[in-house]
Amino acid sequence: MEHLGNPGHSSGHAPDLIWLRKMIVERALTRGDYVLSGGVRSDYYIDKFRLFADPQVLRRIARLFTPLLAETNPDLIGGTELGGVVIATAVSQMTGVPMIAIRKQPKGYGAFADEFVEGPYEPGQHVLLLEDVVTTGRELLGAAARLEELGLKVTPCAVVSRGLAPVRALIQFSLPRGNAQMEN
Questions:
Q1: Cα–Cα dist 169/3, whole Å
Q2: What are phi and psi of 114, to 5 degrees?
Q3: Domains observed in the chain
Q4: Could you give the CA distance from residue 125 to residue 57 in angstroms, rounded to a whole number?
Q5: How far apart are CA 141 and CA 94, in angstroms?
Q6: Confidence at residue 177, expressed as pLDDT on a 0 to 100 scale
Q7: Burial 13-35 (b: 16+ CB within 10 A, else e)
Q8: Is the dihedral of CA 142, 143, 147, 153 positive or negative?
Q9: Beta strand pairing status for 117-118 and 168-172?
Q10: Element (H, E) at 83
Q11: Closest CA to 125 of 99, 143, 105
Q12: Peptide bond into 82 cis (omega under 30)
């Protein structure tokens, strides 16, 4: 299991990560036949909004990013549309670090049509870019690339990685077919 923060550094967050895995299994895990982002098929799905809807759960998940904030010292917290924006908002509220939202597509209307980023930023700023659940990491890495094109420095991270993405995450989560046990 990879934990946000210094690799190989003992973390005091192990109980919180165990708690997060338990919350995923108890509240957010559904079994069936699902097509995930990028066309990958899975016999389970993590409905993160079953976690994010509970303010206490969302606040505790946001706190899990504290070691990474201390390590990276970002100027901004970024969130990918849609679940990443929820996480970024909670982390921003908890830490006082301003946030931006990164759209999948430009909104196409208003004063800043054709822009992917909502919120103020300056080239050269460092963004901690947050996502909820990643399978391949394609959308998160695409959002990071769009921010880098704007002159921002980016550290992309997720709450959960399903193990196929080259992305740092709070936890790696995978289930063997037909079994509701979690592997590290």
A1: 6
A2: 75, 10
A3: 14-172 (3.40.50.2020)
A4: 30
A5: 25
A6: 57
A7: beebbeebbebbbeebbeeeeee
A8: negative
A9: unpaired
A10: helix 83-95
A11: 99
A12: yes
Q: From edge to edge, which strands make up the β-sheet containing 168-172?
A: 117-118, 99-102, 76-80, 126-134, 153-161, 168-172
Q: Name the nearest CA neighbour of 48 among 176, 171, 180.
A: 171
Contact in structure between 116 and 102 (CB atoms under 8 Å): yes
Contact partners, residue 175, CB within 8 Å, separation at least 6: 29, 43, 44, 181, 182, 183
Global pTM reads 0.86
Q: What is the pLDDT along the chain (184 residues), one digit of tens a residue?
A: 334 333 333 455 789 999 999 999 999 999 999 988 778 788 999 999 999 999 999 999 999 998 999 999 999 999 999 999 999 999 999 999 999 999 988 877 877 767 899 999 999 999 999 999 998 888 999 999 999 999 999 999 999 998 777 889 999 887 655 544 443 3
- Kindly state the helix (H) or strand (E) to which residue 58 belongs, with its residue range: helix 55-63
- Measured CA to CA, the distance from residue 145 to residue 147 in angstroms comes to 5
